[in-house]
C-alpha cells in the first residue's frame, strides 16, 4: 500500500502589495483560502480620481497664471471675492516656490498618480518599490499642501478654490496609500488590520474647515446667510 504525503500547509501567498489579498492554504485543503483582503482597488480608485482632479485644476491654474503674466489686469477664473481670490495668491512668491508656477508640479505628478491608480484599479499587481514611491510622493505632496494652507490662511489671507480641490485630492491620496501600505506591512512593520479609518480622514478635513472658518469668520458666516 502506497502512503500519501500530507498536503502542503501553505501553497502560496499573494502579498497585500500585489493585489491586496493574502492567500494561504487552509490545513487539510488543496485549494487556497482567503485570509485577508485589503481594499487595494479602493486605493486605486482614490489615486485615479484624485490624480485626474489634481491634473485638471493644475492645468487651469497654469493657464490662468500664464494669462496673468501676459496681462496684469487679467482676472483668473477662480477669483470670486476678496477671500476666494486666486489672483491674490498667484501674485505671491509662495505661488512659485521652486522658481516656477506651482501648478507645473501638479502637471508632473498628478498624472503619474492617476496612471498608477488605473493600474491598481484594473487589478495589476504593483511591485513594492512602486508602493514606496507612491508613499514618498503623496507624503511630499501632503507636506507641501499643508505648508500652502498655512501660507494662505496666516500670511496671504486669501483662498484659491482650485487649490483647495488639489488639497482635498492630495490628502485623500496620502491617506489611501498610507492605509494600504500599513495594511500590507510595507512600512517596516507587520500588516495592520485597520478598520473605520475613514473617520480619521473626515476629522482631518474638518480640522481644515475649522481653520478656514476661524480665519475668515465673517466671510464664512455670509456663506450660510448669517
What does this structure look like?
The chain has helices spanning about 40-70, 85-90, 105-120, 130-155, 160-185, 200-215, 215-225; strands at about 20-25, 30-35. The protein is mainly α and about 230 residues long. The chain has a single domain (about 40-225), classed as Up-down Bundle (de novo design (two linked rop proteins)). It has a two-stranded antiparallel ribbon. β1 (about 20-25) and β2 (about 30-35) form a beta hairpin. It is a multi-pass membrane protein.
Topology:
Elements: E1 21-25, E2 32-37, H1 40-70, H2 86-90, H3 103-121, H4 128-156, H5 161-184, H6 198-215, H7 217-223
Antiparallel strand pairs: 1-2
Helix pairs in contact: 1-3, 1-5, 4-5, 6-7
Quick structural gist:
The chain has 226 residues and is mostly helical.
Order of helices and strands: EEHHHHHHH
Q: Mean pLDDT score, rounded?
A: 84
What is the percentage of strand-forming residues? under 5%
Residue windows where pLDDT falls under 50 for at least 5 positions: 1-38
Identify the overall geometry.
globular
CATH uppermost class:
Mainly Alpha
Q: What's the β-strand tally?
A: 2
Question: What's the CATH architecture name?
Answer: Up-down Bundle
Task: Please report the distance between the alpha carbons of the first and last residues.
Answer: 89 Å
Family: Belongs to the VKOR family.
Domain Vitamin K epoxide reductase: 40-181
Transmembrane segments: 45-63, 104-122, 129-149, 155-177, 198-216
Subcellular location: Membrane
Amino acid at each position: 500500500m502506497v502512503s500519501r504525503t500530507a498536503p502542503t500547509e501553505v501553497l502560496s501567498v499573494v502579498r497585500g502589495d500585489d493585489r491586496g489579498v493574502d492567500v494561504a492554504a487552509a490545513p487539510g485543503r488543496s485549494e487556497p483560502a482567503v485570509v485577508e483582503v485589503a481594499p487595494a482597488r479602493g486605493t486605486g480608485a482614490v489615486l485615479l480620481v484624485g490624480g485626474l482632479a489634481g491634473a485638471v485644476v493644475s492645468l487651469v491654474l497654469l493657464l490662468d497664471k500664464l494669462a496673468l503674466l501676459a496681462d496684469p489686469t487679467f482676472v483668473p477664473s477662480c477669483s470670486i471675492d476678496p477671500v476666494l481670490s486666486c489672483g491674490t495668491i498667484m501674485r505671491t512668491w509662495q505661488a512659485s516656490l521652486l522658481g516656477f508656477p506651482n501648478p507645473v508640479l501638479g502637471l508632473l505628478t498628478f498624472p503619474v498618480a492617476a496612471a498608477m491608480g488605473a493600474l491598481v484599479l484594473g487589478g495589476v499587481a504593483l511591485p513594492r518599490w512602486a508602493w514606496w514611491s507612491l508613499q514618498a510622493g503623496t507624503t511630499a505632496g501632503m507636506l507641501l499642501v499643508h505648508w500652502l494652507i498655512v501660507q494662505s490662511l496666516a500670511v496671504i489671507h486669501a483662498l484659491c478654490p482650485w487649490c483647495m480641490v488639489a488639497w482635498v485630492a492630495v490628502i485623500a491620496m496620502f491617506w489611501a496609500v498610507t492605509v494600504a501600505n500599513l495594511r500590507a506591512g510595507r512600512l517596516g512593520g507587520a500588516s495592520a488590520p485597520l478598520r473605520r479609518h475613514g473617520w480619521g480622514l473626515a476629522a482631518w478635513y474638518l480640522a481644515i474647515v475649522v481653520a478656514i472658518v476661524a480665519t475668515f469668520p465673517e466671510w464664512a458666516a455670509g456663506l450660510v446667510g448669517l
